[in-house]
Amino acid sequence: MLIDPARLQAFVTDIFVAAGSARDEAAQIAEHLVTSNLKGHDSHGVGLIPAYLLHLRDGAVFPNRKPKLVSDLGAIIVHDGDSGYGQPIANAVFAMVGERALATGVVVSALRNVQHVGRIGAYGEQLAKKGLLSIHFVNAIYAQACVAPFRGSDARLMTNPICIVAPIGPDRSPVVLDFATSAIALGKVRVAMNKGVEAPPDTLVDHKGQATRDPRQLFVDPKGAILPFGLHKGWGLALVAEMLGGALAGGGTQAASTKPKGLVNGLFSIVIDQKRLIGDGGYFADVAELIDYVKASPAADPAAPVLVPGEPERAIAAERAAGLPIDETTWREIVAAAQSVGVAAPAI
């Protein structure tokens, strides 16, 4: 089914208002989730609503929390998310961090103890609008890990994304590199299960460590696991993201014997005002030349030209502007979640 993005966003806002959030907070959560769907990242979109409300009922997340400033050393800033909803907490943190980076040239930011922050690229895009380049390492602590180590057979970490967003000029959209260090995002496994389709090959193992394409193996007991992307390379990046986003940010790691409620993220970010290094003119000119150069490579398939990170999402957003595709299973789950807080689904 296709759903109008604006109507869906209003519906999602109403759900979180009914669940106890102030309207501004609810609107930020809704905007983030719907935009994730709009850009083709259904794994980080409105299909997460049932999980968010479950975490709310379990006392893992609390509405209307604000980030707590733990330490401010000028160019090093540490925040605690106070178990609040990830999107509004992270929006507030990166608004502050962005302004500080414009003043100091660079900021190292740590955010810990925050519930699921969603699509990391959204915060890099927020900073890029200010002309800032940002690098993010993210860990997650959850009751049940979902990613196996390279050469391992059971899950030990979460999908631990890494994100780099770089502005490339005042009139050009930024490069947005945002990827899970697993072969596939956990949310994409959930989407595949809801659609009744197989996961891509070489992405999953069952609870015995044997290759499988059945996404249900991640949601039954005993659970299977997702493989890291790129064998040892993806595994190394996942481990570093756990070290930086978890241990260095002060929020702990998946190795802790006692896990917090819900899905807790930790973010370690470096935000740079590139003008302090080279100035707008030289950097933008060099990057524009570089991008034009790589995109001039003749396409192996004429129907699939060379793209740079961020372009696929912008193309999908243009296609989906008139209607977001939501599979029937996911929609039923969203409607049931809405009804649990007294909100009726709109006619579609």
Q: Roughly how much helix do the residues carry, as a percent range?
A: 25-40%
Please tell me how large the radius of gyration is.
20 Å
CATH class of the largest domain: Alpha Beta
Instruction: State the shape.
Output: globular
Question: Strands of the largest sheet, in order across it?
Answer: 2-3-4-11-5-6-7
For CATH, the homologous superfamily of the largest domain is named as: Malate/L-lactate/L-sulpholactate dehydrogenase, NADPH binding domain
> Would you give the CATH topology of the largest domain?
Ribosomal Protein S8, Chain: A, domain 1
Distance between the termini: 9 Å
Structural features, described:
By secondary structure, the protein is of the alpha+beta class. The chain has 3 domains: 1-57 and 325-348, Malate/L-lactate/L-sulpholactate dehydrogenase, four-helix barrel (Hypothetical Oxidoreductase Yiak, Chain: A, domain 1, Orthogonal Bundle), CATH 1.10.1530; 67-182 and 230-296, Ribosomal Protein S8, Chain: A, domain 1, CATH 3.30.1370.60; 194-227, no CATH class. It has helices at residues 5-18, 23-38, 49-57, 86-104, 121-128, 186-195, 232-248, 280-295, 311-320, 328-340; strands spanning 2-3, 68-72, 76-80, 106-115, 132-141, 162-166, 175-179, 204-205, 211-212, 225-226, 264-273, 324-325. A 7-stranded mixed β-sheet has the order 2-3-4-11-5-6-7, sandwiched between helices. Strand 2 and strand 3 (76-80) form a beta hairpin. Helix 1 packs antiparallel against helix 2 and helix 2 packs across helix 4 (86-104). The longest helix has 19 residues, at 86-104. The protein starts with a strand and ends in an 8-residue tail after the last helix.
